[in-house]
């Protein structure tokens, strides 16, 4: 008989410290094999073979392998589709249990259901845990037992419920001796998966205390390095949300609110699954007659709209994979309202470019800007990019960094005139939304 093992399958929880599934796996009573799959179901669909998210994952997985080797263990890594991997694992190992953390996107839900069915056919239990948020699913409901669709009352209920129990860390380090002792075949190279590394640095995992302390006053100014840059680490689970929430609770209510927004969008995705299939949260907004001018969309993508703040944001994202949150709102509003281009086009473009791309937050942010989401900016609110620049980039430092030719003749004229575009957007939205009241 082969020795029974427990498998902890990592996905978007790439760390060994304060990790729910790993903690429970290590306490299972069996040696724990830590597994990671470079999922071809996802990777094969990526057009950009220099995608920095894949580079980040590969770098992190390699670091995890090194950490496990220091404990006499190793990381079991595959480059394949999940179901064939699990069929192979069932043949090779005597698996007692499998532990994972919840994932909330539709592909992940379907993937996990298929793996669960396969494991159950062999009488192997699959245990799943909350790890990437403080509260999920049905944990924060209204007094009537309904999910919230407006952030402010949700955040109040969240804060009323949170306590040390929900914020405490899982002490995984106490059980590291339970790791399976042995080695595996290693981590496949990026090149073998047909990806290429750019070698540029990624945001640090540690936030300076001063950044959190001054977050409320400085966070809206894109020229300043005043945001945490934690979003990529939260996306892939290289930091613990519990640790960040404890720091935020101590140092910055404003920063804590940003973390609560993540939980809010996760539970919206769970309770309102129609947004997973390309629909507006508020379904009447699916009736908007978008212009969808492809040349204007391309100008927006390239940062050539003639609106300097919009162009700076798009160029920053195209070059670095990061865009400041204030600028995300401005660029998204500009596409959906000034240009009347379907917000789903912009959502998909951000999904390709952002290092921290996360469906729930990306979809929530885009629908907020387009006016179609829960707790959204009303359709008649149209950001004026010039006023936003005057307020949040008063010295033009951010714009000059990303649009150095702003004062030169080859910088394009504005693609639309603000007041004309604003009025067109309001009328177009009104026609779609008001049909319900006719």
Automatic annotation (TrEMBL):
Its cofactor is FAD; (6R)-5,10-methylene-5,6,7,8-tetrahydrofolate. Belongs to the DNA photolyase family. Keywords: Chromophore, FAD, Flavoprotein, Lyase. One of its GO terms (biological process) is response to stress. Binds 1 FAD per subunit. This is Deoxyribodipyrimidine photolyase. Residues 4-134 form the Photolyase/cryptochrome alpha/beta domain. FAD binds at residues 215, 227-231, 255, 258-265, 356-358. It comes from the Bacteria. The lineage of its organism: Bacteria, Pseudomonadati, Bacteroidota, Cytophagia, Cytophagales. Signal peptide: none annotated. GO terms for molecular function: deoxyribodipyrimidine photo-lyase activity; DNA binding; FAD binding. The record marks 290, 343, 366 as: Electron transfer via tryptophanyl radical. InterPro entries: Crypto/Photolyase_FAD-like_sf, Crypto/Photolyase_N_sf, Cryptochr/Photolyase_FAD-bd, Cryptochrome/DNA_photolyase_1, DNA_photolyase_1_CS_C, DNA_photolyase_N, Rossmann-like_a/b/a_fold. It comes from Siphonobacter curvatus.
